[in-house]
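During data preparation, a discrete fold description was generated, as reproduced here:
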Amino acid sequence: MEDELKKSIKDWLDYQNERQAELEKKYPPNPPNDVCKYALVKGILIENSFNPKVGELNELFETEYENLFVWTHDKDENSAIVINVDSKVKDIPFWKNICSIIWLAIQYANAFEGISSDCFEYRWIYYFESGKSLSEQVFNNLEQFDEIYLKSGIIIKATDIGKLAPEIELMLRDDKAYTALSMLCNSFLQHYICLICELSSHPYHDHLSEEPEIWEHASIIPNMEAAIVQACRSVEGILGEPPNSKKQTAVFKHKEKWIELTGIDPDSIFEKAGISYLDFYYKLFFDLRNPSAHSYGNIHYELEKSKTVQAQCFAAIVVRDYFNKHVLNLDEAQKKLRFNLDLLNRVNEDMSTKLTK
């Protein structure tokens, strides 16, 4: 009896192992691969004012490793972005994927208004067929209840992505731009400010930051410290560490670097702090960043919200001017990324709809 039980258990385990092996052969778990190279982008939807039919798969643009498409998967539902990813991404040291780049470009274009940690995510599809509906696709990495949210996210036009071509192309081409904007976005996630109001010269502002009440201060110090560190890292990624202020030759070369990379005169006044840009960089690096990055068990109780705001505004200006100096113009960027101008021309800029043709 015992031998029969052991044999039955062994047979059952063998069957399960064989079944698992067959499943893994049909549905290999390591996308992208030959049968799982398309991914739906969760968190972003494309409205249908370009008048698509159900099942349409329209190329949007392409990069070295990724081809992006607008896929109209169901009747009267907003379209989705799906990406065909080359398996070569597994062989490179770091895959600077287009999903993260589009998310960064949108935050930048919106001046970080309403920034959220809900980044766009790849949801891999086995044996993708554009003629099948969304519910008919077989996904690799759907989490519990994830399917409910595949049709939710920000709703934009295909032309909205088209307008971001200069920023997208620059981040693909330039690691400095990608890294600096990544750090800056993270700074705003840690400590949100209304950048438009903070940098506006208009005398009336709706969203200027105010110092916390005494009972609020303790809870926001860690967020302000993290925001300052990330803002400093953002600038450092572009300009490098400020030189020894006593070595005039090094300071002069550093000033030349400012002008070359950003067009900013480092001796001009950073109005938010009332001192020169260069002087504030020294202050940011040594007086704000260092105590924020290294606590040594001390409470950084002297940290003011206004100093955090200055650091974030400073970083935003440096990143903005670096981007402005190095981006291609819109036509050049769209051409380089092979944007589908026929698709963009189909978009109706005067209306938004999820209705299909």
The first strand starts at residue 38 and ends at 46.
